[in-house]
Amino acid sequence: MRPRSVIDYALARRATLGDLFAGRVSSADVCDAHPYLVRAARYHGEPTKKRCPVCRGADPLINVTYTYGDELGPSSGRVRATKELPGLAARYSELNVYVVEVCPPCGWNHLITSYVIGTGEPPARKQSRRRAADT
Predict the structure, then answer these.
(1) What pTM does this model have?
(2) What is the number of other CB atoms lying within 10 angstroms of the CB of residue 14?
(3) What average pLDDT does the segment 46-75 reach?
């Protein structure tokens, strides 16, 4: 699996934290994780070794990985484990992957990276099924 179009949001993260520590924004403004994101972090996320920059709690930050793509159909936007990504990259032509760090106790969340995976080939066309009345 070779990611393409990688975007690292470290500068945006640093700017947000700088605004918080300088008092330009409140912790309520940056610790606003949606309840579904917190739930996804708790049950499907992958713990990191980093601590929350806001609450500095004992719990590690959790990465939640989302995949989006037309070929995924109704499962587009699902949370995926990192170990699933190579299989998806081999099976689909293009998937957008977004990784969000989340602190469930305080609600801090920030998009940390996004990238594209897949074969890069045009998507395989699905065969249309002919009905008995069409023959």
Answers:
(1) 0.86
(2) 11
(3) 94
